[in-house]
Amino acid sequence: MPFYAVARGHSPGVYTSWPDAQAQINGYTAARYKKFDTKDEAEEFVKENALKASGRPPREKASGDSQVDDEGYLVVYSVGVCEFHGKSGQKSGCGVFFAEDHERNVSVPLKGKASNNAADIQAATHALITAKAAGYDKVAVHTDSQFMINCMTSWLKNWKKKDWKKSDGESVKNKEELIELDKATEGLAVKWIHVKAKSGIVGNDEARKLAKVGAKQYEADA
């Protein structure tokens, strides 16, 4: 199995799928990547080239230091989780990761009925509100929720025109959460970047940890 090392891209890391790796380098100035036969070689390439590119470890790993990409967008990772999904006692939480030990990292329980999609949407909302409060006007939201990205980039405009009805006439699920997320984008330039979950991407992994902590505080009637 090949391993694709992305040392400089939207989300540096090691990928096992070329489309996933390609998504991290498309549109990224001075991207640095390479294919390897072993994971160890790929990880070493990422480590060495990240150091060569900046003269220090990647910024996302620097304590309290927010990362900004080549286009001036604040890099943030958001994740929503639903523990014990479909079972009694399921709990949802939201996590937002800016950087290690960053004062603006978010770990909160979901408000409303527990579900993955609702948690993903609320996590992104927290990310944008927090970024805006910090004075940023360009934000790159890295998420493993393709559903949410589709909502915001492909479906939302028509849903709003049709009074939040889908093409089959059914009401849009997660309407309230999406209204809040749409509101949070006002005044911001937002890039939605899909990352693969649980694939060794530091920001995604850390946001997931924060979301799980938030889920522990979840109450069904929140």
Quick structural summary:
With 222 residues, the protein is an alpha+beta fold. It contains six helices and nine strands.
Structure report:
- Belongs to the RNase H family.
- Residues 48-67 are annotated as: Disordered.
- Its EC number is 3.1.26.4.
- The chain is of the alpha+beta class and 222 residues long.
- The chain folds into 2 domains: 3-54, 3-Layer(aba) Sandwich (Ribonuclease HI, Chain A); 74-217, Ribonuclease H-like superfamily/Ribonuclease H (Nucleotidyltransferase, domain 5).
- 37% of the residues lie in helices and 22% in strands.
- It is built from 6 helices and 9 strands.
- The strands form 2 sheets. Strands 4, 5, 6, 7, 8 and 9 form a 6-stranded mixed beta sheet that branches.
- The longest helix has 18 residues, at 116-133.
- The protein is globular, with a radius of gyration of 18 Å.
Describe the secondary structure blueprint for this structure.
Elements: E1 3-8, E2 13-15, H1 18-25, E3 32-36, H2 39-54, E4 67-68, E5 74-83, E6 91-97, E7 106-109, H3 116-133, E8 138-143, H4 146-161, H5 175-184, E9 189-194, H6 202-215
